């Protein structure tokens, strides 16, 4: 039996700003329980809903030094869905209304979290063989582990893994300040360690010091070795390519299941979708004030509204995209210019565009179920979970061939009747529009073909089964 501790800044159902939370909250359930005991450690953010916080059980507390402050570290525990979660408590750092704030605050917050997490392990009664870190917020953990904790007997054989969910976010801040906050010795701030372009870089530290580095699709693992996708760390990714691998994400097939999903007005499966799925479309049209028409081609977008997601392509051709035979339903929050762009088109084409600028799990499920197609023309996409959710709900993804989108959506081939979605290669608005129009043509004029695409998509297996096995293999390779 091996013990693995995930350390991350978010996980469903407690706190979520993106796909990271879906992965950290669902993957631990899918390991072989006879071989692996996988637990999760998170910050005890005050913005975690009370219904969860009230159930957390206090275990212990102690104090650590961080910069010139002595800080309280509380440790809480909660078993959820068969998985043990530990929460690190400190209201000074985790008290805000959102998990993340300004980068200079987050830099100190996650230095605290990293040090506190490592310091808490000996007192929780769980000795990990592997510490599995996720994204820049935990980048300092492999560094601290090597620099100080592994000197002690308790940590001496502990290995670390750094999983990159998004290389764009690295936790970069002024070198002198980070030196001061972290208390790491000067030699750690060299260009082959924590320093990058004269600043300190948490994720870089994690990548340099972890025993293995992974990212969330095979294609992204290749892409980040190139300057275009490498976010200034392509040199390092190449240098570490022996230890770097890509393991594609899955989704939680219990949470995302059109057959049992209580958010839907009509449940369906791979056999009944032809008769049932449209009922969700009409219900959503009614709820959002769109023209009720079960045959209208409805495109969905559920996304953070940022450049990563290819929204400038959409903005560029919105008028052509929202033609009379299309309905567009958007759910997302993010950059103001995109929020306002969608609001504008909601006003302009009121009966066929619906902009929902907020965050709602329930609404996201309704959209995955109601739409015919799901648009995700990302500039880059480490994996992407939304297209997997769309596939699961029989909603045909239209994606750009990048990162995980390339690995999970097979392009429709009309000559061989193959494929689970539609895709285009170049980051070009008219290329995207061309492929949307192609999908629309198949939907309206070749309905049987369309239904076969849906059928193949629903049949594809993106549960965690296969990928959890790949993580197990990776863990095994460390021993
Ligand atoms: P990323 O992590 O880059 O945002 P992913 O596709 O990996 O992209 O994951 C996005 C997750 O966030 C999905 O679970 C998606 O349904 C969810 N999501 C994004 N925006 C919203 C929103 N406004 N309301 C509800 N869920 C959302
Ligand atoms: C990041 C990526 C997304 C990925 C998610 C979970 O947020 O942007 O592509 O699916 O992490 O790994």
Automatic annotation (TrEMBL):
The keyword Transferase applies. It catalyses: [(1->4)-alpha-D-glucosyl](n) + ADP-alpha-D-glucose = [(1->4)-alpha-D-glucosyl](n+1) + ADP + H(+). CDD domains: GT5_Glycogen_synthase_DULL1-like. Signal peptide: none annotated. ADP-alpha-D-glucose binds at residue 16. Its EC number is 2.4.1.21. Gene3D superfamilies: Glycogen Phosphorylase B. Pfam families: Glyco_transf_5, Glycos_transf_1. Residues 291-435 form the Glycosyl transferase family domain. Keywords: Glycogen biosynthesis, Glycosyltransferase, Transferase. Residues 3-238 form the Starch synthase catalytic domain. It comes from the Bacteria. It is an enzyme of class 2 (transferase). InterPro entries: Glyco_trans_1, GS/SS, Starch_synth_cat_dom. Pathway: Glycan biosynthesis; glycogen biosynthesis. Synthesizes alpha-1,4-glucan chains using ADP-glucose. Belongs to the glycosyltransferase 1 family. Bacterial/plant glycogen synthase subfamily. This is Glycogen synthase.
